[in-house]
Amino acid sequence: STPHYTVSSGNIFADLGVAEPEIALRKADLARELIAAIKNRGITQQEAGELLGIGQPKVSAIVRGHLKDFSVNRLMELLSLLN
Q1: What pLDDT does 4 receive?
Q2: Engineering a disulfide at 18: which of 9, 13, 43, 47 sits with its beta carbon 3.0 to 4.6 angstroms away?
């Protein structure tokens, strides 16, 4: 039998029916860049939090993809502090 599949729109959040999928995708992209910047520096979440002026639990939330408490602008600000 032939496999059944749906071609992605290019935005997984839109495909899943998430509200404001463009914003969700942008946040995910920024979080991925933040995680990469933390790894590239070879620092802990605690050290990243100190550099960013946020607590380690907030860094952990970003790493785990829990982004509802962060705006796109705030994630951009945090990224600029690491770059």
Answers
A1: 84
A2: 13
